Amino acid sequence: MLNMGVTVENPSRIKEAEVIVAIPSYNEADSIAYPTRIASEGLVEYFPDKKSVIINVDNGSPDGTKDVFLTTPTLVPKIYISTPKGVKGKGSNLRNLFEAVVELHAEAAVVIDADLKSITPHWIQYLAEPLFTGFNYVSPIYVRHKYDGSITNHIAYPLLRTLYGPRVRQPIGGDFGFSRSLAQAFLLERTWNESIANFGIDIWMTTVAIARRFKVCQTFLGSPKSHRAKDPAAHLGPMFTQVIMTIFDLMVEFEYLWKDIKESWPSSIFGFGLGVREDPPTVDVDTDALYSSYISGFDKYEEVWKKIIPKAELDAVRDTRKIAKGHFYYPSDLWARILFNFAIAYRNKDIAHEFIIESLIPFYHSRILSFVNKTIDMDIKECEEYFESVVRVFEAEKSYLIKRWDEEKRNLGHKLFKFESEE
Q1: Cα 59 from Cα 340, distance rounded (Å)
Q2: Mean pLDDT computed over every residue of the chain
Q3: Are the CB atoms for 117 and 198 separated by under 8 Å?
């Protein structure tokens, strides 16, 4: 049953469905009609013999999102579900969706972003079809501008693959599919927290699906992702903090799993990418802002960096200050070690979690700047090949992560023992 205070409008009185397409939203009145129409077309064209419904899982948007959604002409019935007043977050919306999937006995649920401009009916087919062939979680593959999805490219993807093994290229892509059995598992999962109730939800779903041994695949959606792209040098807001905190929280939860995984492996892929034009929307990057964030970070955060990053790596970091903006670059093994040490500091709990993530931002900006300088003349395909080489560097550095993780764990044990002895 949906939680108390949840608003449900079900004008067609749908009581069961085999396929659900869900659109999470908050203040998307200007964009939600298009993906709603395309979702209906996809369901009618590719799943004509299955009972289907489109669900808008919303945060009580005051801009009229609900009215636009419900009045958009579709051949497929629609349901509107909203969190209680004052409850926000994409994760909160998707938790309502998990409940709806279970209640409606749906076999397949597809989630698509409300601001999508490039969605086609094929997306519905490609995201749902694998769920009827034994898979439980479907992650997207699509062409993106080389500077779009920076959190994915520089943190989420390399860490997920290095830690857990499957090569899932877009673990926070926003468009995915899952089965009813996985929805039930999500509802029972003990790792739920405030970050996951917000922007941490996508990486949480992908990681939990992998860690709990559900069958995961990728599907090629056949067209570049076009949505409201953001300059990675701009203000990050809560998304960065919530995604990274979720990744680090799950590292602690699933330590027993990732420490025994020695190498990555390809995941099953549906569809194919031949003939797709590489013309996703351009993402402009303010390299001055990236460089300034990094250099000023030394004045603001160097004292806390000393507590997080071992001396050898910190000395290498300090040397990068001598490099001019236009030539700025540091090797991927150093970036991997920086990230690993921030995860360890997060686990240790000696420094406030929010402050640890805040002090990571200058490094994140410096990594994007390093990437921009390295790939300025590369096309999207060449950039993907470069990303592959970067992630292989991360995998090669995993022994460093485990060694440091265990050393710091022993140190924590000594500190705790000393504290208890003094008492």
Answers
A1: 35
A2: 92
A3: no
Mean pLDDT calculated for residue range 172-176: 92
Is 52 a residue whose pLDDT tops 90?
Answer: yes
Could you read off the pLDDT of 382-418 as tens digits, one per residue? 999 999 999 999 999 999 999 999 998 887 765 544 4
Give 3-44 as a DSSP string.
Answer: PTT-EEE-TT-----SEEEEEEESS-TTTTHHHHHHHHHHHH
Q: Answer yes or no: are the C-beta atoms of 263 and 399 closer than 8 Å.
A: no
Query: How many helices, marked H, and strands, marked E, lie in the chain?
Result: 16, 11
Query: What's the mean pLDDT in 150-155?
Result: 94
Of the pLDDT bands very low, low, confident and very high (cuts 50, 70, 90), residue 231 is low
The residue whose two tokens read 């860490």 is 159
DSSP 50: S
3-state secondary structure of 116: coil
Write the DSSP assignment of 52-64 as a string of letters: EEEEEEES--TTS
Give CATH 3.90.550.10 domain extents, the chain: 7-270
Nearest Cα neighbor of 100 from 130, 86, 80, 84 is 80
Q: Which CATH architecture has domain 7-270?
A: Alpha-Beta Complex (3.90)
**Cα first-last separation, the chain:** 48
Kind plus residue range of the DSSP H or E element containing 232? none
pLDDT tens column, 310-346: 999 999 999 999 999 999 999 999 999 999 999 999 9
Would you say the pTM of this structure is higher than 0.90?
yes
Any idea how long the chain is? Answer: 423
Residue 208 to residues 182, 201, 259, 420: CA-CA distances in angstroms? Answer: 9, 10, 16, 35
What's the CA gap between 143 and 176, in Å, rounded?
15
CB 57 within 8 A of CB 78: no
Which residue from 136, 171, 346, 359 is spatially nearest to 251, judged by alpha carbons? Answer: 346
Helix (H, G, I), strand (E, B) or coil at 233: coil
Structure tokens at 109: 């649920």
Give me the mean pLDDT over the 36-46 stretch: 98
3-state secondary structure (DSSP) of residue 91: helix
For Cα atoms 150, 153, 154, give the angle at the middle one, nearest 5 degrees: 85
